[in-house]
Amino acid sequence: QVQLVESGGGLVQPGESLRLSCAVSGDTLDHYGIGWFRQAPGKGREGVSCVSSSNDNTYYARSVKGRFTIFRDNAKNTVFLQMNSLKLEDTAVYYCAAGPIIPSAQSMCVMFTGYEYDYWGQGTQVTVSS
Hints:
By secondary structure, this protein is mostly beta strands. The protein has one helix and eleven strands; from the N terminus they run βββββββββαββ. It has one helix at about 105-110; strands at about 5, 10, 20-25, 35-40, 45-50, 60, 70-75, 80-85, 90-100, 120, 125-130. It is globular, with a radius of gyration of 14 Å. The model has no long low-confidence stretch (mean pLDDT about 95).
């Protein structure tokens, strides 16, 4: 059975960095596209960044573009989300999800495209506070 485990969350100050990890077990990572999502209290789920079959095919939400970097390491069966210049509004529970590989990483991240993920992790809390 495929399992996803997120790690790397924590409490940081504005401007600092964190690196989240999404470790995949039960299958090989290269079978899946991976998305990072977040949900803040009282808000809906937001697609943060997604990667399709390679690191050349990625998507970033406008709110994180230029600050976050997604990177898949198939050898380690892990996808990373490097988060730099963190802001107060980045505070949320971050989830990773695995689904079928499709040509468009954007379609994996944006709502109402019909794309569905097969597996979800349990989430990791990121808190940005001064």
